[in-house]
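Two proteins follow. First one:
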Amino acid sequence: MGSAMLLVTTCLLTAGGPGQGLFFDVLPTVADSSALVQLRPTCRWLNANVDVDGHVITITKPPTLHLRLTVGSRNAKIAESDFVLSVAPVLVRGHLMVPLRFVAEGFGAWVDFSGRQIKLSVPQEQQAVVIATPPHPQSHIGKMYAVLSRYLDLAPPLKAAEAPLYHFNLLSRRYKNQLAANGRTPEAAEQSLRERNIAGARVERDHYDGTLRGWLDVVMLSKSNTVTHRRVSFVKEADGWKVDDVGPIPRQK
């Protein structure tokens, strides 16, 4: 049942294999129709080095590749060539977010958009990964992303995370009732959720049904370096989007 999978992170794969290494603690977003991704995990996946000096970001990859960006500025450089970005790098909760296409293609990665997904690949290094196209923060899917971030404890926790039943209160009424029927008290459920030790995640697919329901297919990395694939389902209630179930990702036909 989904309620059991909500409370236990099961080891399915070891991290580090092809396509498994890109995990964020701030989920990608969109600004001015451009995808923004967290700087350091993206550069780590590209095998590039990052140096931040004030507002200036220098990204290098031996032997000769280097990019330079500035927080809040659309001006950038690849080697000695000047570029104007579609959107400037920004800080989100203390984490640098940069334009995905510019940084990835600057280091030779292919960026392929297909429907609601983006495939990043570096053929010469035999690695590839898929992420969902980042949603606008105010869209329904964007709001599901926001609930997922709180549910998985991604990024610096909000002050509200100190509340005794912070995670439990992100669950739908149906889900809470299901846990109660299975003998789980709110306090026991909250304790299990606080012990998951999620280090990072990425969303690979998303869906909003046009009414009050949707889901995100999520790949999660634990602090013990194991990877779990889960479909997190959501329902919109009177006080906002809630987690309604967590279970295996169905096989695609």
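Second one, unrelated to the first:
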Amino acid sequence: MKTNLRHLFSFHSSLFSAAAPSAAHRHLFSFHSSLFSAAASAAAHRPLFTFLFSLFTLAASAALAATPLLCNPYTFVGRITDARAAAFDNQRPAILSAYSTADAAGAPPTLLARSTTFYRDDTPHNYRLTIPMSSTPADGCALQNDLLEITATDDAGRLWTGVIDPATVGTPGTLCEVDIVLSEDADGDGIDDALLQDLINEWAASDYYTPDTPFDIHADPDGDDLSTLDEAHLGTDPFNPSDTLQIDSLDLTTTPPSLTASLPAGHVYTLETTPSLTSPWTPTDFTSTPSSSPRRTLSTPSTPARTPVTLYLLPTTNPSPAFLRLSTR
């Protein structure tokens, strides 16, 4: 045993003696010494490192807990129209805003989203409002069970306000369709007050006015089978029998067949066909140019008062219809 220990000691001594004169190896010893010192220092400060790491872990957990858990938003789309059923757009804008409703503590509503009406001829919608949702309270977000207060104002200052439960009109992550009519009906007769007064004034200035006959908004003074209120909603003149919604021409010799019409402003139009007048009318596809994509609706802008259009029938989806009509809403 003593011999073995002696050989071991002699081996280490030889290494030390051989390495000591070498300048190149001094750095090696110095490096190992530094490592040893750093390790010893780390061991001495291990409680401090452990404490700091614990604080960092707690801070990270608190930040994670404070981060709102965002959910799929509610996206509302639809049409904002006036009392004449004419849509607002970028030329005649209306502003739509969404607020959280006041809470039990009486905190005022918070603005969640705002948008302005737009115009596209290939969609019946003229607004899109996306409301951020969260499963935990967060600034600028609605909670999943919140009621929403929606307001809309036009350039004339008319205001529409409604409280909507999003769960009744759709689900998060999908489009929720809500149409809004900017109308004021103080007397509760079901007709917008300003529209009624405008129609009375137009009637009084027309050839159909008789002082002994009271104004009737449901009458048809110009005899075109549409009431005064219906024509107001169509965008046609209720006191002019030649101002109607009609197809101006139909050309079955072109490929594809086409029709032309001059359509009142701010409305959505659908082309419908039926094989007989006793059968249901069915919406059918058409295009706005011979080579464009099929569609089911056409929207007109708020100006001019009439928009001339040409619509092309699709033979594959319109197998020789006997009757054709334009409808609007």
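SUMMARY FIELD: The two ends are 109 Å apart (CA to CA). The chain has four domains: 26-67, 70-181, 193-234, 247-328.
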